[in-house]
Amino acid sequence: MLSTITAHPLAGLGWDEDRAAAFHPLAETGLLAGRITRIDRGRCDVLVVDPETGEPTTLRADTRSVTGADTVNNPCTGDWVAVDPAARPVPVVTTVLPRTTAIIRKGAHKRSEGQVLAANIDTVLIAVSLAAEPDLGRVERLLALAWESGAEPLIVLTKSDLVHDGEFVRADVEAVAPGVTVLTVSAETGDGMDALRALATGTCALIGQSGAGKSTLTNALAGTDAMTVQQVRTVDEKGRHTTTTRELLPLPAGGAVIDTPGLRGVGLFGGEGIELAFADIDAIAADCRYDDCSHRTEPACAVRAALADGTLPERRWESFLKLQRENDWIASRTDARLRAERARHHKSRTKAARKAYRV
């Protein structure tokens, strides 16, 4: 079984025994297994294996049959899916196979739905441009988002060829990223790219602000010019939205990279990532006298002591509290939405039962 999986044409993109087992019941019906490389306007590109040639090929398929109100479970770039190639007028995605990981942020609106940025990723590459002073609060937010996905975060400080104090900035970023590798690279000169390629195994997803150099990194990793690149504005070093959709590109040595549009807002959709992004605060809090310490007025509070002596910067503590408040709000909104959905479901079932009784 293992040798068969290793020899599979899509093994380099992550096809494995678990996915083969999940797809097995569907294979008997003439469906094809594949991975979504791009999705837009109800259609997607799916990389499948041609049954006749045994070679990878791309199908354009309709996703409407697996798209619903629950946005978190809708198909996304990186998903493994089952496709009916015989459907007309175009092939149709019939099933989304179970995900191992997913980057999910809160939608850009005020409701509590989540938006999936990429699925089945092994490493989240957080691109931070050295051409402007990094926003450490945003780095912390992106780290929480990355940890929440279930994948391994890796911070990539880009455009090192444009600055002379990259190592000082790197030290500042490392201070807010406990346990996370931070690389300084330049896609233009190639500096640091070998180290990045060595760590960017499996499927990687690039996230960050517009102008952080994500598309340039994608091209450098994939060895192509597939992603359009634009220069940032020289006035304020702000980026333009070059990438408008999420796209998966295979890498020459195996694996894949997913480029994503620049993130202006990074709302979290869940809270476990916060604990990992602020693991240093959790370690400090473990020394508080009381297990349920609120870190406000209790005696022998290790957090208050660390704030007083500068061990824990006030800025980082405030960032932690802000993300916790946002997460609490999302949790309350999500619970309310689930309760409303259950109420609607109960109401519809009750009406159906009454109708059946009258008949």
Task: Write a short abstract of this structure.
It is an enzyme of class 3 (hydrolase). The protein is 34% helix and 21% strand.
What does this protein look like?
This protein has 359 residues and is α/β, with parallel strands linked by helices. The protein folds into three domains: 2-96, Nucleic acid-binding proteins (OB fold (Dihydrolipoamide Acetyltransferase, E2P)), CATH 2.40.50.140; 106-259, P-loop containing nucleotide triphosphate hydrolases (Rossmann fold, 3-Layer(aba) Sandwich), CATH 3.40.50.300; 272-334, Ribonucleotide Reductase Protein R1, domain 1. 34% of the residues lie in helices and 21% in strands. Strands 10-9-8-11-13-12 form a six-stranded mixed sheet, sandwiched between helices. Strands 3-2-1-4-5 form a five-stranded antiparallel sheet. It is globular, with a radius of gyration of 23 Å. Mean pLDDT is 85; it is low at 232-241.
